[in-house]
User: Which sequence fits this backbone?
């Protein structure tokens, strides 16, 4: 019996398929897209993943220009985040703190002063997580397309484009053999009229409470930063005080 999310995927894909050009014939594309998405949802343990609404993780980030940052992030969906960071650039260390709580946000820099974020600096979706991205393919508002396959390193990948209202389109490259996400990318317009493409490559999958999660990510376009997930814990509910204005 198909899992609930897989049934939902079939319904949504039948209703919202847009065949990208160039590509296979529409009838074949619909069947192929359905198979790719169902495999990706199974690989991500999507039904378990959908039940994850709060977590704490520690990540180490190293950039190509020599800085290292350790972040500890507490998330409570849909819109509460607390992130503490320790940055080390050439021996110069600095600590930062950011808190998002609904439409409010605060940050604290090295001077220890708490600053209120301007409304236009608060992310619309501050609680996004890389391991939940696959759920975009079953967003009822999404337009999902199958693009031509390509290689990611030595792995053949199926390529899916997801367009949602009010967001830049996302491109998912799923391992053709396993269904796991190999690469995610998104191109966004910038205020100066240029475009910026975010790229994230995922590897070293390990299970966390039955959910496979990439523990190594390479992010960027040129000046890459490598992220290693040190620890990830799913929790039922965080203490609301975590997301109050810092002192």
Assistant:
């Amino acid at each position: 019996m198909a899992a609930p999310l897989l049934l939902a995927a079939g319904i949504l894909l039948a209703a919202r398929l847009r065949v990208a050009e160039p590509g296979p014939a529409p009838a074949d594309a619909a069947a192929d897209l359905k198979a790719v998405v169902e495999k990706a949802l199974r690989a991500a343990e999507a039904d378990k993943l959908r039940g994850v609404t709060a977590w704490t993780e520690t990540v180490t980030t190293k950039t190509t220009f020599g800085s290292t940052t350790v972040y500890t992030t507490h998330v409570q969906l849909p819109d509460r985040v607390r992130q503490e960071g320790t940055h080390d650039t050439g021996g110069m260390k600095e600590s930062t703190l950011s808190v998002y709580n609904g439409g409010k946000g605060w940050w604290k820099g090295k001077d220890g002063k708490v600053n209120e974020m301007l409304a236009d600096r608060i992310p619309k979706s501050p609680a996004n997580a890389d391991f939940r991205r696959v759920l975009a393919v079953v967003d009822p508002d999404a337009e999902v397309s199958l693009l031509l396959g390509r290689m990611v390193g030595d792995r053949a990948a199926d390529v899916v484009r997801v367009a949602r209202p009010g967001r830049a389109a996302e491109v998912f490259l799923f391992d053709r053999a396993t269904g796991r996400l190999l690469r995610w990318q998104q191109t966004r317009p910038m205020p100066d009229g240029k475009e910026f493409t975010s790229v994230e490559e995922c590897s070293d999958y390990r299970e966390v409470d039955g959910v496979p999660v990439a523990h190594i990510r390479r992010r960027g376009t040129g000046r890459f930063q490598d992220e290693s997930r040190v620890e990830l814990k799913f929790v039922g509910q965080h203490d609301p005080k975590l997301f109050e204005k810092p002192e």
User: Anything to note?
Assistant: Residues 4-19+131-233 form a domain with the outer membrane lipoprotein receptor (LolB), chain A fold (CATH 2.50.20.10). The radius of gyration is 19 Å. Residues 1-25 have pLDDT under 50 and may be disordered.
